[in-house]
Amino acid sequence: MSYSPKLPIYLLLDCSSSMSGAPIEAVRQGVKALLADLRSDQQTLETAHPAVILFNSTARYVSPITALEDFHEPTLETGGTSALGAALRLLGLCLEQQLAGRSTGGSTGGSTGGSAGHEDWYPLVFIMTDGYPTDYWQEEALKLKSKKVGMVVACAAGDTTNLEVLQELAETVLQLNSLYPESFKTYFRWISDSAKTKSTRLPNRRTPPDLPPPPLRVRVVP
Amino acid sequence: MNYQKALLQDGSTVEYELVDDPPSGSMKKTYFSPDRSYVVQFYHDAAVGADPQRRERLEAILTRYNPTLSEAQGGAKGNSPTQADYYKNLFCWPTGIVVKPQLGIVAPFYPSNFFFKQGSLKNHEKEGSWFSRTKARRLLPAQELGSWDKYLEFCILMARSVRRLHQAGLAHSDLSTKNILVDPIGGQCVVLDIDSLVVPEVFPPDVLGTPGYIAPEVLATSTLALRDPKRKHPGATTDQHALAVLIYEYLLLRHPLKGPKTYAAQTAEEQERLEMGEKALFIENPTDQSNRSRELKVPYRKLGSYLSDLIYRAFVKGLHSPNDRPAAIEWERALIKTWDLLLPCSNPTCAQQWFVYDPSGLRCPFCGTRLRPAWPTFPLLKLFREGPPEVWRPDGEVVLWHNHSLFKWHVFTGIFPGPDSRDKTPQAYCLFHQGEWWLVNQNLFSLISPEGDRIGQGEALLLTNGLKFRLSQEPESRTVEVELIQISG
Lengths: 222, 489
What we know:
Shape of chain A: globular
Oligomer: heterodimer
CATH topology of the largest domain in chain B: Transferase(Phosphotransferase), domain 1
CATH superfamily of chain A: von Willebrand factor, type A domain
Number of helices of chain B: 13
Radius of gyration of chain A: 20 Å
Low-confidence stretches of chain A: 104-117, 195-208
Largest sheet of chain B: 6 strands, antiparallel
Number of strands of chain B: 18
């Protein structure tokens, strides 16, 4: 039986009271943009498995790893403090479980173990926040750096973000307000320990002719 | 001339020309500056001026919500000077708050390309409805109508403007042909009435919207008390409805919900509430054809798969299910992808002049003319991006035509057309020369033929059916496959 490896995508969404108004709207739109990018490519459509951790005064694993087609946008309501540290700790637990699945062939990762090409891809993590955590989070952020993840992207939401916190969280910081169509695609990385898939060889041809000059009027998309 | 002084919040003053009968909208009246470079607008309702929340909203709009100022100038977080300059052209963003003689705003005047240059409407502003309605179009001189590719272009800008607002967590709340001026000759548009921006739970909407663009759920619940929890208010999801209506109207010249079906009601308002609200039905609904218009010369499917999918989501799946509506960023993406599939119509008198490539038939859907260029084929470039290492995934298509160019956003996955791509230099162009199609390298540094030969700048690669090559050897560059589409036969 063939097993298709999953690309787990963890969304850590800040729902604390400081996120109410514009920031939480920005997160809603950000999640929509991310899902649109995931759905626009066959590879991500088949492999991407989003999971959601919401955090305010506590962190909650509200939506476990789900196939993209069965995934529903989470309902976001704001209030309370911003327990980023707790969310990162919860993410750590999820990642460990995932990894245990990878190496032992256990049920969580659905992996078949050591055989090349049959393991899940390393997870991608998107943290959407305004950057005002209220708990002790630095140590958890450091721990995250030592975990085997494909990519951690911190997404700045709203008009009064604290970028320093986001920069400490992840090497890649994205401003949600200046996101382009398909900009999330740039961060979809399929990384594994196993062998790479082979590409097809490209056929050949080339000749230089006597060419007329380039066009004077150039049409360009706005 | 009766020039008056208005005192701004920052202590400076501006002049405006006081007239008896100023242009007037639902919320404000407008006076012009002596040199017509800006306008001064006052709210009709004096109570608005006394409302501290109104002041607070205007302050936020001028500063931390402001994409037309860089972060260094006190604008939106993360906004670069390049982005600020770019968005200045897409929005008529307020530049000052007037505190005396009463609360108002100062906003830039629209550039001259948003005024008619000829015909009976000369010097009138180009309200979108002149261009989106068949009857109104008949009154315009042909030189003012513009070709279809320009409509697609200003729709890209319109989607991008709304996307920029939404991703900052803001909503316009009253998008309509009145509040977005368009220039179908230059392919430009500008979003107006920014002072009423909505932030859910913080700054509520002022109005329901403009008839024809109000989301069905807002209209259907508009008779409920303002504080009734069942009542739906304008916000990002209703902007998404209005944006979809506008794009559909501009590209197909008809309203997506205005069909033959009517509902008997006591009043015209009640009838409108049913037809555009509770009972709203897409004129091209595939299963319920009871509102199907008789004038569907060009069905929406002719706009290609990217736009068709979104139109289906907006008017079939999402019409009464706001969360299923496509986000502005999805419209922007689909419109850009569609732009890459434009073919020129072979009929020189065709009003539209361009149409979207449709694999099922090479015929202009607007005038019905078959594609008959001077060449027997044209190249379709299929783009691929690297997914998992060395696995190439389809990533869009580009129709190439004689003298069409490829740009950096075609070559690299991390570059996007829009505010940040200052580099609009063509990287290569396509040429039909001596009976064959060539890709001429202009600015690609590492274009290598499949044989392994370097193709320098000014040199060309012969495009044959099935040819695969990488556009650059640099990271995040795309691979392409050529398909020569047969035109005749």
